[in-house]
Amino acid sequence: MSNRLRRSMLFVPGNNPALIIDAPVFTPDSIILDLEDAVAVDQKDAARELVVSALKTLDFGVCEVCVRINGRHTPFFAADVSALVPVKPHALRLAMVESAEDVACLDELLGRCEADAGLPVGTVKIMASIETAKGVMNASTIALSSPRLVAMSFGAEDFTNSIQSERTPGGHELLYARTAVVLAARAAGIDPIDTVFTLVEDDAAFKADVRAAKQLGFAGKSCVHPRQIALAHEVFLPTPEELSKAERVLAAYTEALERGAGVVAVEGRMVDGPIVARAQRVVDIANASKSLREVRAR
Amino acid sequence: MVTNKVGRSVPSFIENLGELKPYAGVFATPPTGAHYAPPIRRHLGIGMGAGKKFLASLREAILASGLKSGMTISFHHHFRNGDMLVNMVVDEIAALGIKDLTLAPSSLQNIHQALIPHIRSGVITAITTSGLRGELAEVLTRESLLKSPVVIRSHGGRARAIEAGELKIDVAFLGASSADVYGNMNGIHGPAACGSLGYAMVDAQYADFVVGITDNIVPYPALPISIPQTQVDLVVKVDKVGDPKGIMTGATRITRDPLELHIAAQAMRVIEASGYFREGFSFQAGTGGASLAVAKLLKESMAETGLRGGFCTGGSTGYICEMLQEGYFSAILDTQCFDLAAVESLRTNPRHVEMSASYYANIHAKACTAHITDIMMLAATEIDTAFNVNVLTGSDGIMMGASGGHSDTAAGTKLRLVTAPLIRGRFPIVVDSVHTVITPGECIDVLVTERGIAVNPAQKTLKEQLNDFGIETVSIEELQWRAEKLTGKPEPLAQSEELVALVEYRDGTLIDVVRRIL
């Protein structure tokens, strides 16, 4: 399990300097500079140069900075990777991943580019985007395809096309795929990230969608508008009750360790490894939000 | 030239304007003298035509007013960029061969670029205004066309200068969207409805001669009475006083710009932490991009907690009026309506009332609203590391804004909060020294940007309150550094020593000057 929170991953068009400069202001956990869908074919080179220059010069603060590169079978794939590695994005997000081989291919190219740039192999991580029926069916092998993989995201728009369906507000058509991505990612110890929600004006529906994703086991949400970030963080934020219980668990566990006792009970329930880990996770998320005060004030 | 309290070099004498005092501190310079009083005249006969109070042509009115070369004429800016009167009246004056006038409107807009030929030809030779924009502003910053620099006054400062007789208005041409033939006027009814006539009220009371101009004559009495018949010498009917499209929109929308919304959210936290967001608090939303969004956040919080505000002041928008209607605020004191929804509220809600610019912001009024307000949202085109604020000149040194009520409200309000994007048009908002000081830094408590919050070091308690609330603050120098890291440091502007404008502080002293940009 990675230590980094990825509750929100904000897509930023790779050809828009103003949006790139402002992206860290909204403090998403991750920023995804997009060279793929957001950029027209005749703008690919210019956008790539802009993103490289942004990574070289801008301070993105605490945000994880990723670049969504063009797919393995496009003419831009190799150029994207070789231009980006020297400026060390945290990760590259590969679109339309359908097999372990897709990831392995990127892994290998990254290794070569890292060697050329004099960087330790493994510097740049990978996020795999599952957006087709085939990708979903192969999710469990994809999730294990590279030690560089830190997250696996689900893309619903392309997915519904691939199953010849369309998105509905209830999202039943996505349930299996979302669950498959969560299970594959969680089994591999990487973060499952849910699909975007495109009705940017509808805060309530967005929050409901994030709540559903959290319940399914997703670690975060891809966001297409800055206003979605705070909302996503709010949903992933523990409730005051959850936080105070987690703090009691950790305190009891620490005390038990000091006493040399292996097992401890909190409020009549045995506390063991998984419960401690979950409690730690709750406290970590609360700490990562603006302040604990915010949680307590809810 | 002498150096004033904010370190600016200002003249102590200007030909045609006389002796000038340097700014000495927010309340340092005591008032002197007495209120000006217009002459008493025999009233004009009731009825229409020569020698009567109601005239059908502007030309007759100008002639009847006794306007002569060398005099001062005034206007209000409630019709904003839809204003037709200033251009129309000055055209008519020029046609009559009258020259060498001082133009003293409450403010000037883009549409007034039509005055440029009249300035070049000597019809207008001096200007005093709160602000100016567009081509007119550019011409007046780049060329020396007037016999003395433009005098920039705040809304309260203009009211004060008029009351004190420092700005003596010979003839005020005051437009109204509705009037009767006896001179009762309002801005609430009629096709060119603009709402409050707050700025015009001072002119009506103190000008030597008052010409009311309307395109909508109604049966006596024109109610509500914003400007009474007792102050109006003549009434003229014209075809159109303003273009409704330029006057205002239906309802001002809350910004959807994510950056401005982010700034608003930060500002809201500052307001919550300040302690002034309490039962009965008073509020002025100002005109910045984030300010209405703050109002929305206040409303959400008030809906949740049950806390209720007192009065709202300054200009009004539909959103604030809706909050009044729903009981979130108890009253609106209004100098200027910004949209038709606000006009409608002024028309229908008895707790929404007009106030004059003097009532609003005059430092020497026996009470002014600007001194009793709790929370003021301020804008800035630039703010320097001493917290001095510029809202008049742009990053190119060209005049493009207005002094407005900025320095007035900042002087008296309890929480003075500037919101601004840290970078605007590739320029940093925080600079070493603002090009033009409109509001002195001692009147600013806190700057909220999207990239950090800086508290004026003089406000130690506020800084502690914010930090205790969990709000991280940084020095304003740190914000400057953050901006310059992205933008670099702008080159100094090339300007001559020639003065094109004087910035009068609200008490009548000089706080800064604007030099001609080369």
Protein traits:
heterodimer, A: 298 residues, alpha/beta, two-stranded antiparallel sheet, 48% helix, disordered C terminus, B: 518 residues, Glutaconate Coenzyme A-transferase, 5-stranded mixed β-sheet, 22% strand
If you had to describe this structure to a student in words, what would you say it looks like?
The complex is a heterodimer of chains A (298) and B (518). Chain A has 13 helices and 10 strands. With 298 residues, chain A is an alpha/beta fold. Chain A has 2 domains: 8-236, Phosphoenolpyruvate-binding domains (TIM Barrel, Alpha-Beta Barrel); 240-296, no CATH class. Residues 291-298 of chain A have low confidence and may be disordered. Chain B is an alpha/beta fold and 518 residues long. Chain B folds into 2 domains: 42-247, Glutaconate Coenzyme A-transferase, CATH 3.40.1080.10; 258-495, Glutaconate Coenzyme A-transferase, CATH 3.40.1080. Helix content of chain B is 26%, strand content 22%. In chain B, strands 5-6-15-14-11-7-8-9-10-29-30 form an 11-stranded mixed sheet, sandwiched between helices. A 5-stranded mixed sheet of chain B has the order 16-20-23-27-28, sandwiched between helices. In chain B, β9, α4 and β10 form a beta-alpha-beta unit. The two termini of chain B are 21 Å apart. Classes of the chains: A alpha/beta (298), B alpha/beta (518). The interface between A and B is medium-sized, with 14 and 12 residues.
